[in-house]
Amino acid sequence: MNNNVTMLLNADELIKSALREDISSEDVSTNAVMPDAKLGVVNLIAKQDGIICGLGVFQRVFEILDSGSKIEFYFKDGDKVKNKDLIATVTGDIRALLSGERTALNYLQRMSGIATYTYEMAKLFEGTNTRLLDTRKTTPNMRIFEKYAVKTGGGHNHRYNLSDGVLLKDNHIGAAGSVERAVKMAKEYAPFVRKIEIECETLEMVKEAVEAGADIIMLDNMDIDTMKKAIELIGGRAQTECSGNVTKENAAALADIGVDFVSSGALTHSAPILDLSLKNLHPVDTTA
After folding, report:
1. What pTM was computed for the model?
2. Known catalytic residue: 70?
3. Which of 13, 98, 180, 208 is the most exposed place for a label (fewest CB within 10 A)?
């Protein structure tokens, strides 16, 4: 089952919640100018270049409001679009087109912005063995959409949520008492199929994590020289992940270090939207 289908299977309640947020009782503006059902069509147009993502979610917004709505797409998720491209035409009850416009665009612009930003960052790691990962720094109730957008843009997903994997961060280490004890306790508690990842801020912590048998060592907020020393110290005994303030501007400098993974919260928390618009709404003559 592809990622788009999996996302849509879990998306309906979230989309309905977003629609309820925007239409608490009625759409007063739409009901004022369109008291009765009338078939209409509107164009989805790109207003800047980027990677389109979230077309299925965009479509589902209108289907929830009007089961008879139809959309003709001229692009698919992951495609590059350019300013002024006609991406799709939406046909349906004009009341649904008007009431669903903002919610549909909010999803599509946000997801396309993340896909575009991720695509630009992923290109910096082309030709290397380093994989670009997202984080859990997502918008509440938007994680399923934002992580899908990361994959569409060419990135990879880190754990989806707290139930999805073991990642021992600084406060877990503080709670356990030491790196060694945190890894030991995780190994005793977690199923054997779970990898144990631990966050390290110093070379001393890295050494302790290796000796404790951690599977993945996150090099957190280290400078380039310290990371190089850490990778040499690890010597292939664990996989490595670089994390901490990774952005488009500094990602290129990390490509040659040799870490297995680079994780970036910026993929989801700092990506600008891709500007898109619904334009040229007009009634369809059904008498012809």
Report:
1. 0.94
2. no
3. 13
